[in-house]
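Ticket #4471: structure output looks truncated?

Reporter: J.K.
Steps to reproduce: submitted the chain below (415 residues) through the standard prediction queue, then opened the result file.
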Amino acid sequence: MNELAELSYALDTFYFLMCGVLVMWMAAGFSMLEAGLVRSKNTAEILTKNIALFAIACTMYLLLGYYLMYSSAEGGFLPNLGFLLGGENSADAVTAGGDDAPYYSMRADYFFQVVFVATAMSIVSGAVAERMKLWAFLAFAVVMTGVIYPVSGYWTWGGGWIDAIGFSDFAGSGIVHMAGAAAALAGVLVLGPRKGKYGNDGTIRAIPGANLPLATLGTFILWMGWFGFNGGSELKVSDVDSANNVAQVMVNTNAAAAGGVIAALILAKLWFRKADLTMALNGALAGLVAITAEPLAPTAFGSMLIGMVGGLIVVVSIVMLDKLKLDDPVGAISVHGVVGIWGCLAVPLSNADATFGAQIIGMLGIFAWVFLASLVVWLVLKAIMGIRVSEEEEYEGVDIAECGLEAYPEFSVKK
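Returned output as attached by the reporter:
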């Protein structure tokens, strides 16, 4: 019996870690997607943001964020402070049996959670691309990953007041994706649009990305990483029920992504008379975000429909945000925020334990905290160091201004 318990513990820990590795690979997906959807003169800077934010997220969550999320009393509002990871599970605790026996390593739990934090922060980088100062962005990343996200994370997955009212979010449509979008929205409002994006007469000018093959590769990487994002959130694979649940989650995740692509592509064709690749890419991500709140309870067909609705929503949202002059170069606010709301609202459609009331209150709590806290931080950073590059630097590209190099130097003309 002891050997079986230890084997199950080892298997679940390994599965948890490998799912965390898949989610970490999503950092590459965000990097490629964003690098493909910005102009070539801003590529090196957006890549610098992505690798730096990942390092900052890992460090701040280690020093502070993990304990803010998980060291406090159930049902509470204010989290406790803590430091580093603490002790590990002992063999005696694992083999003791019972409902309280740990079934995976505490380090595996931290590793899986930290890559979620980095995902939330990655959402912000694309929305504020091409005109934000690098170091202002990184300063915000310190606060977002160390404090803002962990507080709302404590309210939900950490057993705080939002969890206590019955809010349900399996893998983070609201907790991760909408939260990242809320922080991005606050930044976009303070930052303003890119120069030339909107005309004085209200016209909207498209600013195409420099490398759509790269953006497509990034989308496929994110699609792949999402199997770890949702599949790992089952937390266990060592018994028949858990293994079946993991399989169902992955099938549903895939079905939703496919549905999102198809719906977005059809709507783009009907609306714009063209098969818009960028809308198809965002449709895939929208389907993935939509199913993330509840990838277990629906059937595969139901998951496809949830993803299709997400794909339709994201196309409409991207157009509407442009009309509101909210400049989001990669569509992050629409994909992760607007569709994240849909994902949370879709949970009661298949999960009888969830209620629309709890879902709405939970989303409002998460959004209000992350948006308002982020808005304060953005405004403080703007007052202290400024958050936007100069018009000349924006025109020449932030690669040279912020990084002193270009991603595509062979295209430069040297005098």
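Triage note (M.O.): checked the attachment and the full token line is present. Residues 174 and 364 are 10 Å apart (CA to CA).
Status: closed, working as intended.
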